[in-house]
Amino acid sequence: MVQLHMIRKIVDVKSPILREKAKPVEKVDKKITQLINDMKETLRIQSDPEGIGLAAPQVGKSIQLFIVNYEGLERVIINPKIISTIRSKKTVKKTHKKRVLEGCLSLPHYYGPITRAHSITISYLDENGNKKKETFSEFQAQIIQHEIDHLNGVLFIDHILEQKSPLYKFTGEEWEEVELI
Ligand code: CO
């Protein structure tokens, strides 16, 4: 059977839906499966910049679902619940030094360093509706936290402001520090 994918439009940072609290997915039905397939394709074709995660609110659906595809970490995560996070003193120091610049497809070309929990354990449903429990660490934990934020109406720039971190714009040739207004 031929599977058809529809490329979904990624909403802009100013879109109100990005500030809503997403509703849980009641059932992983055909409609959800279609949305997942569309989101996978939408994420796959992003090239400027490339994306590593995409949450349903970013394509205009305020439901608790996101996908991640980064260096072998390929997940569909539905209705995630945070079981625990680890932010040990020692780790925070280490992470702080290695803080990876974070960005978002809803605010392309802007990046900033954010300190997040070093590891996170969540329960969730996968794309087949099976219950899972999984722990993610380091950069993977950062991605998962970024995407869970999307389901709670939180954007990475909120952390930038809170942590008084710099924000940079990458023009394709150079990095320019910008101010968040
Ligand atoms: Co994002």
What key attributes describe this structure?
181 residues, alpha+beta, Peptide Deformylase, 5-stranded antiparallel sheet, 31% strand, binds cobalt (II) ion
Quote the beta fraction: 25-35%
Query: Overall pLDDT, averaged?
Result: 92
CATH topology: Peptide Deformylase
Shape: globular
Strand-pairing-aware structural class = alpha+beta
Bound molecules: cobalt (II) ion
Major sheet: size, sense and barrel closure? 5 strands, antiparallel
| Number of continuous helical runs | 4
> Quick one: CATH class?
Alpha Beta
| Number of discrete domains | 1
Overall CATH architecture: Alpha-Beta Complex
Order of helices and strands: HEEEHEEEEHHEE
Percent helix? 10-25%
First and last CA, distance: 49 Å
Q: Which residues form runs of ≥5 with pLDDT under 50?
A: none
| Sequence of strands across the biggest β-sheet | 1-2-3-6-7
Roughly how many Å is the radius of gyration? 16 Å
Counting DSSP E segments of at least 2 residues, the number of strands comes to 9
Structural overview:
It is a single chain. The protein is of the alpha+beta class. It has one domain: Alpha-Beta Complex (Peptide Deformylase), CATH 3.90.45. The protein has 4 helices and 9 strands, in the order H-E-E-E-H-E-E-E-E-H-H-E-E. The strands form 2 sheets. Strands 1-2-3-6-7 form a 5-stranded antiparallel sheet. Strand 2 and strand 3 form a beta hairpin. The longest helix is centred in the N-terminal third of the chain and has 15 residues. The termini are far apart. The structure holds cobalt (II) ion (CO). Cobalt (II) ion binds next to helix 3.
